[in-house]
Amino acid sequence: MSKDKRINTDQSYQDMFAGVIGQQYELLKKICPLATEMSRLVGEQVKYYAGTKQHGLNVLELGGGTGITTLSILLADDDLSVLTVDNEPAMQQQAKESLLKWSTAGRLEFSATDALTALQGLETDSFDLMASAYTLHNFEHSYRKQVYQQVYRVLKPGGQFINGDRYALDDISAHTHQTQLEIADYFRVLKELNKLDVLEHWIIHLFNDESENHIMRESLAIAQLEQAGFSNIKLTDRQQVNALLIADKVMEIN
Ligand SMILES: C[S@@+](CC[C@H](N)C(=O)[O-])C[C@H]1O[C@@H](n2cnc3c(N)ncnc32)[C@H](O)[C@@H]1O
User: Nearest C-alpha to atom 27 of ligand 1 is from which residue?
Assistant: First the structure.
């Protein structure tokens, strides 16, 4: 399948995001279209889950950044509310400005602490969903493992973990090949845009993502989620080194 066919190219969807988020969305879409696609898939899954419930959802988002995934979640259902966590003030400030309409309406709250600290301060069984994109792969393994344990604790029984992210292939050679293709794309796009500073930033960041203590390999992610207590773990919509991961906190039947 060609790259364009795998990615949502619906013009009204793209225009709306560009309108609310602005240049940040346009640039990310050019540099890494699969990152914006993961946010769209997260929104779709939130919408699907919301359709199975009779009440408004309480959603926790980790790593809201400039608000691309947050917007996708907010648009999934009119009755849901979001607590979005990000410990990078410059990123979060952009989301606060772009998504003012939703925070004014009482549907969006911001937390500026790091994900684990924020989770540790939340009540047990208090959220219907944890929905996130392109954030968890940034975490170091032991930190991510603690985040999974905390997410499991704060989700209500019947709640769901939804994450669209970089999930490294278990086949290391295939993963390296895909990453090389990705790097070639960064060079092609960013040289054309004459943004060599952004190119440098992305390459440096990629070394972090691919490092031994960070790389979020598919099988390790699934094993860590199982250890935390999650069931029905599904990795879907794989597109190169990206995929959507869904896992349930099942209701206990006594
Ligand atoms: C690549 S951005 C993704 C933003 C957005 N979800 C999207 O897909 O466009 C990752 C975000 O996670 C945030 N982040 C990284 N580590 C974090 C942590 N430990 N706690 C909270 N936020 C974190 C970063 O500040 C950044 O805004």
Answer: 65
